[in-house]
Amino acid sequence: LKQAPLRRARFPLGRAARMAPWANEVVARLAADELQPRDYCGLVAVCSWPMPAAVLRQYEDFSSALREAMPKQAYVYPASTLHCTAMTLRAFTQGPLGPEELQALQDVWQPVLDAARASPEWPAAPFRLRMGAPTLEGAAGIFRYEDLDGAMAKMRECLRGAIERAGGRAAEGSDWSQARPLPGLSERHPAAHIPNIVHSTALRWRQEPEEQEVARKAFAQVAKRWEPLDIEIPSLRVVIEDVPYMHIPEDDAHVWWESEPRCC
């Protein structure tokens, strides 16, 4: 007798991803204005912050339409928070730091950043990116960028090399298996992290949306209006992120290190 072929159960592709939680407790507190400066302390290398005027104008229209279209559980970022992260030196999720702890962290990182900037491979400013249409990735709505002149990749490579020469190793994307903090840092400071994409976040969730698929479709409709923009970036900055997700002012208290001299 011939054995009947096995029947395989079929499940819709992507179901697990669709059912993953989207809500973020920090975002809920941020949206409710419950966070205070110094509740957190991150150190982040960013570029294109603040964004050029052309981006801010287009984003104001986009974000206004997004707030109207999305479920009430969504939190749309203010234009002032938009940025591209080149590397996270210390994530804000590690908690607050006192003044002396922060200074000790900066003392370890200063020569590493300076060494990266002094590398012959460091790209000449200004840097160029193309800001594409946003997509909803579930827990976050993001803009992805084209690295038009390869400057972001070159900066990340210089940072990566300077960290390794100093005795550390950055995590890469989702891979933390080879990550190693810089010597001299306490257990409160894990290894640096280099993303494997170039992006800006525009939306997160204060609560779970009632229907994820409805949220996806609403986002996609508004995203169609976005016109790609080519932008010039004057420098890389390392900032003190004492309010999560870059909800900080652009001032000397927050901008700690810059790769290029300020023009004014």
Q: Explain this structure to me?
A:
The chain contains 6 helices and 11 strands. With 264 residues, the chain is α+β, with helices and mostly antiparallel strands. Strands 2-8-5-4-9 form a 5-stranded antiparallel beta sheet, sandwiched between helices. Strands 3-1-10-11 form a 4-stranded antiparallel beta sheet, with helices on one face. It has a two-stranded parallel ribbon with strand order 6-7. Helix 3 runs antiparallel to helix 6 (212-223) and helix 4 (99-118) packs across helix 5. The longest helix has 20 residues, at 99-118. The chain starts with 14 loop residues before the first helix and ends in a 6-residue tail after the last strand. The model is unreliable at 1-17 (pLDDT under 50).
